[in-house]
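README: folding subset

This subset contains proteins for which both the sequence and a predicted structure token string are available. Records are stored as plain text. Below is the entry for Acyl-CoA dehydrogenase family protein (422 residues), shown exactly as it appears on disk.
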Amino acid sequence: MSTIQSAQDADEAELDARFAPIFERIAAGSIEREQKRELAHEPVSWLKEAGFTALRVPTRYGGGGATLPQFFRLLTRLGEADSNLPQILRLNAGFIESMLESDDESLRERWLTKIAAGEVVGAAISERTGATHNSVTLTPDASGSGWRLNGEKYYSTGTLYADWIDVAAHDGTDDVRVLVRADARGVTRIDDWDGFGQRLTASGTTRFESVHVDNAQLLKRYKASEPRRNTSLTAFYQTVHLATLTGIARAVLRDGIAFAQARTRTFGVPGRSSPRDNPLVHRVVGRLASLAYSAQSITGSVARSLESAYQARLEGRATTQTYIALDIEAYKAQQIVIEQVLEAATLVFEVGGASATSETRRLDRHWRNARVLASHNPAIQREGMVGNYHLNGEPASERFSLAHSRSELQRDAVASAVAVDG
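--- output ---
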């Protein structure tokens, strides 16, 4: 074993020891939170205090300095504990990556140190409109000092848990990304997300009524016609979904095993019996284990590709083709992982009769959560993009360029809005 591999293993062992107790605590309360629809403020606080929300922030800014494979491995474990949590923190993670891709050191210093100190970023990007455009406006303040933000966003995942909100707005000429305090005067966050899964992600409405914005809170301007730039963010955001889905597959396996081990009756067998000794139950659990293994392997492979692209960028070796290939790999992974996890979330009920449908167990949450995650970023369109790429060499992202050109974050979030809002 190489010295580098030994060091990586030691790092992963330290990270596991650090976060495993927190994941266990989160998992212990997941069913009760689901039953009561109790937002996960306390688990988010635990993760912030332990440094999970700053894992990818480089150590020079006070963060954890984790590699992308390490980050996604831990994110999968968090998804196993409660799949709402990775989704809640998805925009925070993406914001960190966008800062790491920025060439503006003062911007990185300003915002990454805040995240390292425990502050969390949410986002208000997508809107419930018939067209993918920004209706939120950014206009000069009448006093001549700063700006005023007005409008409404939906699918603003995680904003109820956030300290800062990354907002997509329009100043009459350009699209603009701005950061505003979540508790600023004029900001209203509403928990009106009505999806049947991922119920605790607070993916609802955020309103901005004459919210003051300083110049220091402006992140970047974009022209609507701006061409695709080299970025790994689309693949990164998709891999967060893959890791969360993989976590669900692991939770399905865990809960299926626990259910079968505790049972003392088998359908069609009189008297006491042990489902754990039933060959048919063996087959079900074997299939669940295999599906979880496959999803984890695929997600891990994409995470390693993301890390390779990240290192290539740092070393000046990354090309446009690097990012095109990364997007295609993530899209291909999406097709397989979604199907496998949804299969597992349905198959788990075969470990034991109608009792597996008890509300006290809430095994249905795994399918509901996986189905909602699978609906983000339409897989059927991505499958077509993959085919067109292999047949005609057309880069996948170009086919969504009109809907996605406004910012790295919006490119992914608009697809989510289109998918969920129909």
